[in-house]
Amino acid sequence: MKNKIWIVIPAYNEEKKIGEVVRKLKKTGFNVIVVDDGSKDKTGKIARKNGARVYTHIINRGLGGALNTGISATIMNNADVIITCDADGQHSIEDIKKIAEEIEKGNADVVIGSRLVDSNGMPLSRKIGNLGLNVITWILFGAYFSDTQSGLRAFSRAAAEKIKIKTNRMEVSSEIINEIKRNKLKLKEVPIKAIYTDYSLKKGQKNINGIRIVYKLLIKRLMK
Q1: Average pLDDT of the chain to the nearest whole number
Q2: End-to-end CA distance of the chain
Q3: Hey, is 167 helix, strand or coil?
Q4: How far is CA 56 from CA 66, 90, 100, 172, 174, in A?
Q5: Phi, psi values for residue 191, rounded to 5°
Q6: Which end of the chain has fewer CB within 10 Å, C or N?
Q7: Residue 48 and residue 43: Cα distance in Å, rounded?
Q8: H-type helices in the chain, by residue range?
Q9: Which of 192, 105, 111 is nearest to 154 (CA)?
Q10: pTM score above 0.70
Q11: Mean pLDDT over residues 113-124, rounded?
Q12: Helix 208-222 / helix 172-182 crossing angle, nearest 10 deg
């Protein structure tokens, strides 16, 4: 089945880690798409050298734009299972396999890897920020899950075709939750353990961005 599983990695200035991340995934047998989202370094070149199929944005569009490009590309490549994961190496191969298997077995249409079911090891500031955005997502869209901002997700092809990504930046994670609810897709959360390093903490979501996310989600909700 791995021939039908495609991994989508949005990447912006990730030359330090992208080669290692792609190598591990390719060694496991996964097909890998890296969306080089307007990087100013060698992210795309290194990803391609290590076996990824690379799609390049000339300008930085943001996480939502990169996910939209990557997921659309997997559908064109006839993927059966589509997985999104971060470029900083925080997701383990074991957890990626775990969420893929849930889709393969037909247990869900969408699977989200939750870091907050067992949050030991997650910095307190990250816990607070993620929980806050969980609550905001629930208030605005009526859907509550333990880790709405997780970058590790798996979709069946049918689910991916129904989910419409219209936002370009970090608010996409809450938008995906809203799309799951809107399309009445079966969602399952699976506990995962993020691998935090100095690099991933530096590259990861900052709580100050939460204010921007909330603002954009409010605009999206008001425009419905």
Answers
A1: 85
A2: 39
A3: coil
A4: 9, 23, 26, 19, 24
A5: -65, 135
A6: C
A7: 9
A8: 18-28, 43-49, 63-76, 93-104, 124-141, 157-162, 172-182, 198-203, 208-222
A9: 111
A10: yes
A11: 67
A12: 40
